[in-house]
Amino acid sequence: MPPPSENELEHLLKLAVTEPTERPAFFRALLDATVLILGDNEQMRQDGDITLNADTPVNIQHWEKQGGGNIIPFFSSLAALRKAVEGEQPFIALPARVLFEITQGADLFLNPKAEYGKEFYPEEVATLLATDGVTKSVERYVDKDSQILLGQPKDYPTAMVEALTTLFSQRKLVRRAFLTLMHDQAVDEQPNLLVGLEVDGDPAEIDALINEAANLASEMVANEEPVDFCLVSEKERGVSHYLITHTWPFYQRRWGSWLRDLIPSTTKTE
Description:
Residues 142-253 form the SseB protein C-terminal domain. This protein has 270 residues and is an alpha+beta fold. The chain folds into 2 domains: 8-131, no CATH class; 148-262, GMP Synthetase, Chain A, domain 3. It is built from 10 helices and 11 strands. The strands form 2 sheets. Strands 1, 2, 3, 4, 5 and 6 form a 6-stranded mixed β-sheet that branches. A hairpin with a 7-residue loop joins strand 8 (174-184) and strand 9. It starts with 7 loop residues before the first helix and ends in an 8-residue tail after the last helix.
């Protein structure tokens, strides 16, 4: 629960700053939230409520950045707005999704001058609108005759691995997780990271977990390059065999969880 001084969006923003696993939840909440923007006195003279959509003409205040260029400030609450401006300022409340739609191509900043804030670049806004805040994983089938090169990355993605480890420890679906560098020369010019997951659970839950993990991993690597995921099984050859036999898992479910899987439950009867 957020403290009384924060609303839910501000609470999620605070968590997202330090916990990468919380960022998808923050982005989803932001798209569903109502935010405040600074308007002008002329528009505020209109009587009654104003219904805004992507086609509504709105005069929005822009602020100049210290390094040059402009941003559009927007705020998660009236308290956050009052921390950033002096005196009475006209403002408009509107859905964040509508704000992103009518300002496409502009830089925006959530809660400037607050302890926790975030700048949004045009490319990031476009991605949020296109994916509803979640980057969907894309399935790719590898032909059995394809020649795939596997090896270990020279520059180990420590931040990504730590973030995924935190996520997997929270979801409990993953038994083990492996990492390799994969190069399918018939498809990609450059190699890319591949995360192999040995999992238990319902297929729908597994798909949801992979989508969440892919979204998180792409944020944690340089230039947000894609990271591939695959399911690993000791019964399969190929990539599964390489990962299980020739690499160490970077994540392994705690031994206590393994014991619960191996020891059959018993029921006492009278």
